[in-house]
Amino acid sequence: MSKQDSSQLYGEIQRLLTEYAQTANQWAHFSERDTRLKAAGLVQTLVLGWLHKPNASLNELARSARDLGIRISASALHARLGKEAVVLLAGVLQLALEDLRKACPL
Predict the structure, then answer these.
(1) Nearest CA among 89, 50, 49, 79 for reference residue 67
(2) Rounded CA separation 105/76 (Å)
């Protein structure tokens, strides 16, 4: 895969994660107030961070967040990983699987 192709794929994944996160946040209530780490930011940080390094530490995930323009410490990220974050990520997965099922019906 060329660098341009991988950049386009990365951008498409980031766009989809944003859309899925915004929809799933309606169920999860992860970011209901104005905070640095919104639902889409958390989803992108975790998914893209773990795609880059599957066993990334909180410090490495915080660096991934900074690459996305989100300034958050590892301890602040850890504090946000509660029940709402789990529901948010489950919702994003559900939406992604629904889209995949529509695109590739059995």
Answers:
(1) 49
(2) 41
> Do residues 45 and 70 make contact, with C-beta atoms less than 8 angstroms apart?
yes
Mean pLDDT score, 82-103: 90
- In angstroms, the Cα distances linking 59 to 4, 18, 68, 75, 86 are 29, 22, 14, 8, 19
Q: How many residues does the chain have?
A: 106
Residues 6+ apart with CB under 8 A from 25: 31, 38, 39, 40, 88, 91
3-state helix, strand, coil in the chain (%, to 5): 75, 0, 25
Neighbours of 30 (CB within 10 A): 27
Residue with tokens 């629904």: 98
Check if the beta carbon of residue 54 is closer than 8 Å to that of residue 34.
no
- pTM exceeds 0.85, yes or no: no
